[in-house]
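// run 5 | inverse folding | seed 20
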């Protein structure tokens, strides 16, 4: 039914408009033209300040809505211009309204509005969780990977696309490749310094592991990674403080340990290793929980996302997997770091993180690592001045996969200062990939993505 409705909309756009022939050409509204010109000018140039453009777009939408409400827009050009203003909105309702305005523009004699009518339809569909059907929408992520997905290429033919002013699929693919080539980040190549020697820290306990069958949440794309016998490190980078990332990491750990026990490494202080060992090795009862919650992980003054309810639930999941013979050790690897007189240096800290991780994980084991998303990069962040090598860049490239836990919109728990912590909100934007693992372009900061497939929710302190 949904596909049939969309097909009828496309036919209405592609068919000649009898009504258009009856409409006398109206003069364009000069204010609407000026609003459109300002909208286009704001998007020109290589260095667009989107933090400034966003509020300006909202102002332009409000004024355009007023012009619509009072009936000040008459001509096909007026509605064509208004469609672009709402196309640059931030919600599905904006995109649907833009589509309606574009259809009115076509009906009032502006044949060139067929493309914006197609583009607004595609954008609306993707933002309500449906695939686009014409191929006007391209999205380039921070890793430089450009995609049109989700995209149902079967509903509309290239002939119909041409009628709407949309290029055929072959040309779209060439454009996608061109955008990806242009947008792919130029990442500095850095030397890999020797790992520093750290002060001794409590060793992680090794548990006896006798595999038992357990139910794991499915993650599309995970099987291909798990079946790689040479893979020693699976690093997941997260924005701390969401409910969903620790949960999907638990699912990934469950899947990865189906054939042999794994080691799990978490970004917690090495001083808390005894408390972690005691809980992971316990029966998980009320006394064990109460004792574990008295550790510094949960009682420290500044409770960021690693002291969250979701992180505690992850520890409970890891304890259950240990009891099922799936986990050999749970390793805390955040070292005690003394920056010295020179002050904090990101390069030194990343080196210390890597040194602690490598020294605390048994050689030859498969380790799953949950760490902040910057630490999980394998190349220097493009914004870092001076450039430095993140933690994952120190791990052996041939036996390491680093995944960015990705989501589009929602909230997370974070500390913005030493005394202020709370839920931070990120608006939903762009396409929301389905849950699963996808691989990125070669040479980017991550080998791939662990897509959560949902808007995330902040997880407060335990």
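// decoded
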């Amino acid at each position: 039914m949904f596909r049939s409705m969309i097909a009828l909309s496309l036919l209405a756009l592609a068919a000649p408009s009898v009504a258009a022939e009856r409409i006398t050409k109206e003069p364009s509204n000069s204010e609407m033209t000026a609003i459109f010109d300002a909208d286009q000018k704001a998007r020109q140039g290589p260095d667009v300040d989107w933090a400034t453009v966003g509020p300006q777009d909202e102002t332009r939408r409000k004024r355009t809505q007023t012009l619509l409400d009072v009936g000040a827009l008459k001509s096909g050009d007026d509605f064509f211009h208004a469609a672009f203003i709402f196309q640059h909105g931030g919600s599905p309702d904006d995109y649907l309204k833009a589509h309606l305005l574009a259809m009115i523009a076509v009906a009032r004699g502006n044949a060139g509005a067929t493309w914006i009518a197609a583009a607004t339809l595609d954008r609306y569909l993707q933002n309500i969780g449906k695939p686009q059907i014409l191929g006007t929408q391209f999205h380039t992520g921070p890793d430089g990977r450009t995609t049109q997905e989700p995209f149902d290429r079967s509903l509309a033919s290239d002939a119909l696309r041409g009628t709407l002013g949309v290029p055929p699929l072959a040309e779209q693919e060439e454009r996608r490749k061109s955008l990806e080539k242009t947008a792919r980040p130029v990442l500095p190549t850095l030397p890999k310094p020797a790992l520093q020697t750290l002060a001794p820290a409590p060793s992680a306990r090794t548990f006896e592991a006798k595999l038992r069958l357990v139910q794991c949440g499915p993650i599309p794309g995970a099987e291909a990674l798990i079946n790689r016998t040479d893979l020693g490190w699976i690093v997941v980078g997260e924005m701390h403080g969401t409910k969903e990332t620790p949960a999907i990491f638990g699912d990934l750990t469950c899947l990865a340990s189906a054939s042999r026990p794994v080691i799990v490494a978490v970004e917690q202080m090495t001083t808390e290793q005894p408390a972690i060992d005691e809980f992971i090795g316990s029966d998980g009862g009320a006394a064990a929980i109460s004792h574990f919650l008295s550790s510094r992980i949960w009682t420290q003054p500044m409770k960021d996302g690693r002291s969250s309810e979701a992180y505690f639930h992850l520890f409970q999941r890891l304890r259950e997997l240990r009891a099922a013979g799936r986990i050999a050790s749970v390793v805390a690897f955040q070292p005690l770091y003394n920056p010295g007189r020179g002050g904090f240096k990101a390069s030194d800290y990343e080196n210390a993180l890597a040194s602690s991780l490598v020294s605390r994980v048994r050689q030859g084991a498969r380790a799953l690592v949950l760490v902040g998303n910057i630490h999980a990069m394998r190349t220097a962040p493009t914004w870092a001045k001076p450039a430095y090598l993140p933690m994952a860049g120190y791990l052996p490239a041939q036996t390491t996969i680093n995944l960015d836990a990705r989501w589009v919109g929602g909230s997370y728990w974070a500390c913005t200062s030493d005394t202020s912590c709370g839920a931070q909100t990120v608006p939903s934007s762009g396409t929301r990939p389905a849950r699963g693992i996808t691989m990125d372009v070669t040479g980017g900061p991550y080998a791939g993505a662990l897509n959560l497939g949902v808007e995330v929710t902040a997880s407060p302190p335990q």
